[in-house]
Amino acid sequence: MSKRIELEPMGRWTTLVVVAHVLAGFGLWYWLAHEIEVAASPGGGTVWMSPADFAAPQAAVSLAVPTEPVATATPRITTPPPAEKVVPKAIAIPANATPEDIAKLLARTPARVPTIPPPPVGAASDTAAAQPMPSATPPPPPSTQAATLPTLPPPPAEIARIITVQHRPAAQPAAPPAAPPPGASLSDIAAYEAAGVGTTGNAKGINMDDMDHAIMKAFTQNWVVQAAFAQLPAEQRTAHMDIAVGRQGQVLNFKMAKSSGNKAFDDSVLAAGNRVENVNAKLPAQFTGERYEFQLNFHAE
Fold it and tell me: Structure pTM?
């Protein structure tokens, strides 16, 4: 009867070595299969190149620069043509070519370098290109139609104030009034003094021009004429007032001698008499009386 031989169990390190060999064999088989497939394809295979294979002659780049700028009235912006698109040309390399054959093949194919076109004549600068071009359409002419102005009322009419002095004719002196009796009241004494015994002088033969001019000036400055007086009839624009002036130019009294027929006109004349207290002139020394009585004519034109 034969003797049975028992094998020793595989250790851990032995198992790892066996697995590593199996993986290495599988990888080698995959690489060989891939190389065979690449070599069988058109233009396939591995190509080995040296740095000398890339030493190709370079074409010179020429830039055309204008010698003198051309001045133009209106700058033209010309868009340069698009740059030429360089497409590399495919080079067919045989599968069984040696590195020396590949170097000779690359040397016979010159590199294509695009030529930069010269800038167009009269091209504007970047600043000018950014500015908008002036419009060729002329602006519309200004409107010749006159602007409509608002209608204004006419200015008020200028009214001239005319004041003249009319001397009274010489009158017979009045009889002196009786003296107030003893024990008379104050009002009786005032009436006796206001009677002016022998005080009305006679201007005949005496030069009263300075006094008359002062009187007309004082009343003209204080006579307020309304604009409505210009619309009154001519006969309603004249009034006469009797006035008495003392030796120092003070206005003693006044009253309306002849009305104009218009109440507003008469009121303006009386208001002027109330405003004038002194004519700022004195009676001449040749005038013997104490009061100068005359008639003042008011006329609005």
Answer: 0.42
